[in-house]
Amino acid sequence: MSTNQIGLANVELTPVIKALNALLSSYHLFYINVRGYHWNVKGEHFFTLHPKFEELYTELQLQIDEIAERILTLGGTPLHAYTDFAQRSSISEDKGVFEGRKCVEGVVKGLQALIAEQRKVAELAEEASDQGTSDIVTGYVQAQEKEIWMYSAFLG
Prior knowledge:
Blueprint: H1 10-40, H2 46-73, H3 82-88, H4 100-127, H5 131-155
């Protein structure tokens, strides 16, 4: 059985790499949605939500890069075309959302989708003895669960 540069079995990593590319796709679509919320939010909560959305999409940028680099570390090739992202994402575009509450609902829905997907990635990674990937996505889940709690508190 052949192994990659970090000593993990290539054949066992194929489903992990595929799942990470799907996750990378979901992150890109969510990033685009959050960027749109940031640019277009209107209403009484503008001054609260506008910077909060910027904080979120900035964190998403870092996570996108980390996921792509993990795919490379495992010996895979990260997707980089929007058409690939759109085909593989668990998150769809959220167009024409301007009202603050609807934007926050979109954030919560997107975070929930990422968490569900990341839990599956963690399971696949654990089956492949890929502790690194499991740790990365588990850390994301923990932080995003807290984000959901805070955004849900905003929604009441």
